[in-house]
Amino acid sequence: MIKEFNTQTEISVGLEALWAALSKDFINIVPKVLPNIVKDVQLIEGDGRVGTILIFNFLSDISPSYQRERITEFDEISHEIGLQVIEGGYLSQGLSYYKTTFQLSSIEEQKTLVKVKISYDHESDIEERVQPTKTSDSTILYLRRLEKYLQLNGA
User: Most exposed of 2, 72, 146, 151 (fewest Cβ within 10 Å)?
Assistant: First the structure.
């Protein structure tokens, strides 16, 4: 049965700049924001919208060495993007389903609220190893690093 874990954070970057970084410039920005984890991100199939398949190649000391994801939601009006792991990554660690959805809304000119929904399912013995609070912590860490990157690079 698919479970959900929700969290949110405020990012001190304007909505449009953050949306562009999470949706359009994703492939180029992720390796710069997570240089100790992600070697590169490749567009395997699609145009960056629903159905697009990406592969995240991790550095050699990280196992598993890659994670393939499909964009399952993409709404420029509501600023929502959903990424589902379809191979490698968390699925190699015993999860049978893992999806992260980001929904952005403007708070102020240079402040954006990011709601994060993690949907997951796992094999019965995996719950202790891969917990949604841990994966949400890494997602929030990514957003914090993205915030710093965008602030330093003029977003």
Answer: 2
Average pLDDT, the chain: 91
Check which CATH number belongs to the domain holding 88 and give it: 3.30.530.20
DSSP assignment letter at 40: E
Domain with 67, as residue range(s), is 3-153
CA distance 96 to 2: 9
Please give the model's pTM, rounded to 2 decimal places. Answer: 0.91
pLDDT at 136: 84
> What's the alpha-carbon Rg for the chain, to the nearest Å?
15
Total tally of structural domains belonging to the chain: 1
